[in-house]
Amino acid sequence: MTETYRAIVNPGDLKAFKIKIEESDILILAKRDILKKAEDILLNIRAQLKNYIKHHPDFLYSLVPIKPDKNSPEIIKRMCEASEMAEVGPMASVAGAIAEMLGENLLQDSEEIIVENGGDIFLNIHSSKKVLIFAGDSPLSQKLAVKIEAGRWGIATSSGKIGHSLNFGKADSATVIAESAAVADAFATSLGNKVSKKEDIEKALEWISQFKEKAKIIGAIIILDKYAGFWGNVKIERP
């Protein structure tokens, strides 16, 4: 599935390269080739995560928030904080958290960077970009694009119909834009969990609106079959 939507990525003046290490399948767009450093950073992040899970196996399987140990690695703290706000298990934010930490650690080598990890994205951009929404078999899939303004952002999409992430809803896509990619990832999962029929869309968007200040949520989009709902500062454009 990743190759399907990545085939239509337009990197503009950024260089594109991929990293695949175990479950992590990542596309990076940067000003220069920083592949080797990116691989080293990703290996380090993954090692910290795997070591923590080895000693705290409940972290991997819990569907509810977990408090991190006092001396937990940064990635564990971010995942726990995001999942607590979104009321989901910590692994619901893993892809976004990895993208975010990887992107932040590469900023000194590329002042403009985009890291996409299984559809969850960290962006530090100097000009606006369009992010296409992939929504599986929905007739709206790849028909809508979100305009992301210059700045540092996280955007994540969860689906009850496609992908490997655990989701208890039936939405084709639940997309969240936030200041943090880890937070966007956790809330995308939680938002998608709340949608099983079209009547749920408005209620789910009302729910996430209450986190505008606390979690720095910018906007959200839900697609279910031919229906779509929008909340927040979301600018929709043609792809």
Structure description:
This protein is an alpha+beta fold and about 240 residues long. It has one domain: ApbE-like domains (T-fold, Roll). Helix content is about 35%, strand content about 25%. An eight-stranded antiparallel sheet has the order 1-2-3-4-7-8-9-10. The protein has a three-stranded antiparallel sheet with strand order 5-6-11, with no helix packed on it. The two termini are about 20 Å apart.
* CATH class descriptor name: Alpha Beta
CATH topology descriptor: T-fold
Fraction of residues in β-strands: 25-35%
The helix/strand order is HEEHHHHEEEEEEHHEEE
Radius of gyration, rounded? 17 Å
Write the topology of this structure.
Blueprint: H1 2-6, E1 15-21, E2 24-30, H2 35-55, H3 58-61, H4 74-86, H5 94-106, E3 113-117, E4 120-125, E5 129-132, E6 145-148, E7 151-158, E8 173-178, H6 181-193, H7 200-209, E9 217-224, E10 227-232, E11 236-237
Helix pairs in contact: 2-5, 4-6, 5-6
Question: Gist?
Answer:
This protein is an alpha+beta fold and 239 residues long. Helices cover 33% and strands 26% of the residues.
Can you tag this structure with a few keywords?
about 240 residues, T-fold, eight-stranded antiparallel sheet
